[in-house]
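---------- Forwarded message ----------

FYI, see the Glycosyltransferase record below. Original note from H. follows.
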Amino acid sequence: MKLAYVYFNDLNKNSANVNQTFNMVSSFTKYSEVYFLSGYIKKSDLKRRLDFFGLSHNFYHVRLLTLLFTKNKFIEFALRGIYCIQSLVVLNYLNVDYIYTRDFSFIYFISNLPCFLRPKQKIIYEPHTIYHKSSSKVSLAHERKALKVPDLFIPISNGIKIDLIQNLGIKTNKIYVAADGVNMDLFNNLPEKLFLREKHSIKGADSIIIYAGSFKKWKGVDFLIKAYATISTMCDDTKLILVGGSLGDIARIEQLIDDLHINKKNIILKGFVSQSEVVELLKLSDMGVIPNAKTAIGAKYTSPLKLFEYMACGLPIVASNLPAMREILDETNAVFFEAENSEDLANQIYCLLNDIEKKVDLQHNNLTKINNFTWDARVKKILKWINSSNNHL
């Protein structure tokens, strides 16, 4: 099978979107012939980005002469249009069987073209949200029009699947849910926890709680900080590590820490770090938290990479009791708390910190289940489903 993977984004960004894209292209390449059509990026920058995410350059890469600029919506709209035109020109010359994309602007652009100008290949769309519910840029009418273009849909959550069917009229047999995954190669042969704590100069802590990911409001990091303010009064030997966040988001979190009068020595803000360092920080920790808020994207439309990274490290997980979390987790490998309830989050963390038997059970179960959620496993399932669906297209 030959695929063109089409996605326009700033590949220099330290984002889960870029991480997921590179991992998917890399895994697809192991089982099919793949051409990745992206915006322009220098070869040296590409190598640096792949090193950052712990990947090698094993795919064909078509770098189109367009850069993404999102500060001005009119310029962004024009640049996305230019990228789509360039992509269609290249696709006309590529001998591929399918176009695989997670780029809504690409399928929306195609929906505005007459049939004779549209790609001849079958189009597979991987939605990561329902845009008219999560973005002011897209109306229901626009989304319905765009979603008439793809032949198959591979949403990352059941919440997206339900809305595709109920709100957007997509037939069930055209949809296959595939949660995100993890690169297990990064988790092999890691040093022991005590060695890593020494390496990262983290001392004087019996227990370490970690959050790794974006600090956007819907991620619920603010609720975790408030919960930690309570925990730190009961367990003064417990530290909190926060990995990720833009400069603006970090400033907001630092202000919240000051407002709550939390000892700054007990909270370690790491910013964005390489994937190898993320893995080491997870390995030296004792518990991972996913405190998503009750927004549509936080509750239904997400499949967070951190969840699978926590599992790959065998971390006990404390997660918001939301449908998106329940798609992967249950009581055998996580403890749940009421979303947006800092007091309940603090209580669940405190109880788990003091329940050694429960922590060991959660650790074992996560290490057992994670093999179902690698990027390679995801790609194999997707390709198998595409092949089985081919007769019905």
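H. also flagged this: The radius of gyration is 21 Å.
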